[in-house]
Amino acid sequence: MFNRRHPRLSKRGVIWGLCMIMLYTSPPSCFANFSQAKQLIYKIKEGLPGGTFIGAIGQDLHLDFAVDPPFLFNLPQKKVNGQYVNLNNTTGELYTSATEIDRETLCPDNSEGRGCVLSLDVFVLPQQHFQLVKVKIFIEDVNDNRPKFPVDEISLSVPENTHINARYAVEHSAVDPDLGLYGVQTYWLVNDFGMFTLDVEQNEGGGHLARLHAFDPDLGANAQISYAYSERVPRDTRSLFHLDRITGVIKLAGKIDTGTATFYKLTILANGPGCIPAVATVSVHIIKVVTGPPAVVPRYIAPENDGELTIKESEPAFSPIAFFTVKNIGRNQRVDCHLEGTGPFRLGPYKKLKNEYLLETTEPLDYEKTQEYELIVLAKSAQGLVIKTFLKVQVLDENDNAPVFQQALVEVSVEENNPPNTFLTQLQATDQDSESRGEVIYLLGGDAPGIFVIDHVTGVLTVTTSLDREEKETYRFIVRAVDQGTPRRESLATVVVTVQDRNDNSPRFIDKDFTFFVPENFPGYGEIGVLSVTDADAEENGWVALSILNGSDIFMIDTGRGALRAKTSLDREQQGTYQLWIEAVDGGEPALSCITMVTVLLLDVNDNPPIVLFPQSNQSYLLVLPNTLPGTSITEVYAVDKDTGMNAVIAYSIIKRKGGEPGSFAIDPETGNITLKRELSNRGLYSLLVKVTDHGQPEPLYSTVMVNFFVNETVSNESYIQSLLTREAEIEVEERPWFKGQMTQGPERKLRPISNI
Single GO cellular component annotation (predicted)? Predict the structure, then answer.
C-alpha cells in the first residue's frame, strides 16, 4: 500500500510495517527511556534515482516536533549512509543517495525466498530524547538484467546416422540474476535447420548433500556412471569443493573465507553411456564457527573524535553516551559485557536487542570537579576470551557558574582632598568555569557616580576627582562581575566609599559680629548670649573651643556651648558698652581658628532716683521781696537722673507747703521753675516740699527737696532764720491730680515750722 503523505508518490518507498513492543508494564526504572524497542520497515524498488523519498522516521514514530531542544536524527553507520541513503538530520526523512541501489550487488547470494534487506540503525537525539530505531529497507527486484549464456558458442558433436529423437544435453544454461518472473523462464531455437528441436527441462533438485548417488538400470558397461560439475559452476567454486568422479563424494578442497560468501550452489551431472546426463543441485551454506574473542563495535551517541567522547556537564542524569554491539559470537553463546573504571557511568543491555549494550550517565557531570574519565568496556566469552575497548569521556564545560566576589560588601576609606585618579581598592571575583566562560570583567552598576572608574580586566577601582567630605561623606554603589560565557552570568558586590575628614575648614561664626543687649544690674554669671559657631569638619577637626581675648576679667564664655556670661553684675552708669574679641579654635592638627567681635550694650534700668542739684539742701533759703509781683519767676529746682531714656525724664511737683495761701506758688513740671502766683501779704518763711520723679518703669523713682523762701526786705538776723529752718512743723498738702498714686515711695524731707516775722 502506498503512503500518500509525501508529494513524490512515484519515487517513494512503501512502508511495510511498524512494530512497537512494550518491554515492561511495571513503573519505569532508570532504563525507562530506553525500554521500548522500535522498528520501522520500508519497501522500495531497486534502481531508484537519488533523492527518492523512502520514509519519514519522525512522522512514523509520531514524534512531537515542538519539543525543545529539537529532535536530531543520526546514522551511526557512516559508510552505509554515504553509499545508499541520505538522512535529513532535522526531519528524519530518509532518501536514496546518489549511489543507485542494485539488489543483485547488495545481496549477491539472495534467493527468491529470502528478501534483500538494507538494515540501518537510526539514533534519535539529543540525549534527553534518545531512541534507537531499527530501520529495515526491503529492496524489491526489478527486471533490470538480461539472461546471459556463460559462453558465446556452445559446441555439440552429433555422429552421423544418429537415430531420430536422439537427445543431447546442453549444459550451458543461461543465467539471470533477477528473481521470479524476471529470471530465465524458457529457451527456444532461433534456427533449427528443420532437424532439431529443443526440449526444456528443469532438473533443479537435491538439498545439504555430501555424496551423490545415481543408478542406471542398464547392465554391464552401460550401467557405469561418472560425476562431473556442470559448466554452470564457476572455476573458483570448483577449486573449493572436490568432486570424486567415481563415487560422487564432495569434499572441501580449500579454506573458505566467510567474508566472501556464505552460500554456494553446485550443479552436478551424472553421465551414463549413450544417454542424457541427469542433473542434481547441491546447496552449500557456510556456517561461521567462532574461535576468537568477541568483538565490541562501538557506536557513539555523544560527539566522538578518535575514540574520545564529549558530553556537556549540563546533560541530565541517565543521558546515553554510546552503544556497544558485541559480535563474533557463536550460536547459543553468552558474553559477559561490563564496565570498568570510576565515574558516574553504567553499562547495561539494551532491551529486546541481543548483544546490544548502552553506556549512560548515572548522575549529572560537573566539569569543575572532574574534566575527564577513562573507561574500559570489557567483553568476556564463555571460553574466557576477553576483549577490552578503551574510551575517554571528556566533560565539556558550560557556563553554569556565576563569578563570585571575595567580598559581597567592600568598604573603602579615603581622605578628602585626594589627588585625581586615586586608587581606592581592587575588587576580585573568581569563576570556576573554563576559558572565556571563566573570564571575568568588572562593570560599575547604574547607581555608581560618574567620578568612579573601574578597570574592566583588573577590577581596580579609582576616583577621578578630588573628594570633599563636607560635600558628601559616603558613596554607596554596585559593582558587577560578568563572565564571558553564553548566556552571561554575573554577581554583584556593594562598594561603600567613606570619605575621611581632614582639617581643611576653619570654625565659622554664624554672624560676622554679635551684639547683645543686656539690662544693667543683670545677675552675675547670667547668660548674656550664645555665640553660635560651626566647623564643617568631623570629629576632632570639628570640635570648637571658644575663648575671650580681652575683658576676661569681667566676662567668661562656655567653651563648648558658647554662652557669654559676666562674672559680676554690670552697672550701665559705670560703663554702658563693652567690646570683646572672641576666638574659636578647632581640634585639628594643626588647629584652625577665627575671631569675631562681640558688643555688649547695657540697657538702662531705672535704678537711680533723680538727684537735686539746686537747691543744694533743705536748709537753704531764698530772700523774696514782699512787693514781688505775681507771675514772677522766683527760682527753680534743678535735678538730674543717672539713668537714660524715660528713666531719666524728670517731672517736678509741689506736694507740701507751709506759709502763704494755697496756690501762691506754682512749679513747671518739666523745668522745675517756681513762679509766684499771688501777692505775698505776709512776711516770714515760706516752705515748699518739691517732689522730683522720673518716668521709669515699672515703678518711677523720686526725690524730694525743701524750697524755702524768706519774704522780707532784708535779712537782718541770719541765726534766727536758721533756727526757723530747723524746727519741725506741719505742712498742708497741696495736691495736683497728676500726682495721685505716686507718693508711696522715695525719701521725704521734713520741714521745720516757721513763724511770721
Answer: plasma membrane
Amino acid at 641: D
Spatial separation of the C-alpha atoms in residues 61 and 74, rounded to whole Å: 15
**What is the model's pLDDT at position 91?**
92
Question: Does residue 485 sit in helix, strand or coil?
Answer: coil
3-state SS, one letter per residue, for 349-417? ECCCCCCEEEEEECCCCCCCCCCEEEEEEEEEECCCCEEEEEEEEEEECCCCCCCEECCCEEEEEEECC
Q: Reply yes or no: is the peptide bond before residue 669 cis, omega within 30 of 0.
A: no
Amino acid at 289: V
User: Given this model, what pLDDT does residue 731 score?
Assistant: 47
C-alpha triplet 551, 556, 559: angle, nearest 5°: 125
Closest CA to 323 of 71, 79, 133: 133
Rounded to 5 degrees, φ, ψ at 646 are -65, -25
Give the model's pLDDT for residue 258: 65
Q: Which amino acid is at 469?
A: R
CB 503, CB 497: distance < 8 Å: no
258 alpha-carbon distance from chain centroid:
64
Show Cβ contacts of residue 648 under 8 Å, excluding neighbours closer than 6 positions. 604, 640, 641, 642, 694
Q: Which three cell numbers stand for residue 397?
A: 564545560
Which DSSP letter does residue 182 get? G
Task: Report pLDDT for 5.
Answer: 36
Residue type, 310: T
Looking at residue 425, the DSSP 8-state letter turns out to be E
The amino acid present at 276, given as its one-letter code, is I
Exposure string for 463-486, b = 16+ CB within 10 A, e = fewer: beeebbbbeeeebeeebbbbbbbe
Residue 351 in contact with residue 31, Cβ under 8 Å?
Answer: yes
Determine the pLDDT at residue 754. 33
Q: What pLDDT shows up at residue 177?
A: 83
**Burial category of 358 from C-beta neighbours within 10 Å (exposed 0-12, middle 13-18, buried 19 and up):** buried
Q: For 473-540, where are the alpha helices, taking DSSP H only?
A: none
What integer pLDDT is reported at residue 640 of this predicted model? 93
Which residue stretches of the chain have pLDDT < 70? 1-37, 77-82, 109-114, 201-207, 209-216, 218, 220-222, 258-261, 274, 290-291, 728-757
Residue pair 670/737 in contact (Cβ under 8 Å)? The answer is no
Report the predicted TM-score, pTM, of the whole model to 2 decimal places.
0.57
What is the Cα–Cα distance from 103 to 144, expressed in whole angstroms?
10
Start-to-end CA span in the chain (Å) = 177
Q: 259: Cβ–Cβ under 8 A, 6 or more apart, which residues?
A: none
Query: All 3 cell numbers of residue 99?
Result: 549511489
Predicted local distance difference test score (pLDDT) of residue 506? 93
Instruction: Scan for cell 514524534, then name that residue.
Output: 63
- Is residue 677 a contact partner of residue 688, using CB atoms and an 8 Å limit? no
Distance, CA of 349 to CA of 324 (rounded, Å): 9
Q: How much is the pLDDT for 329?
A: 78
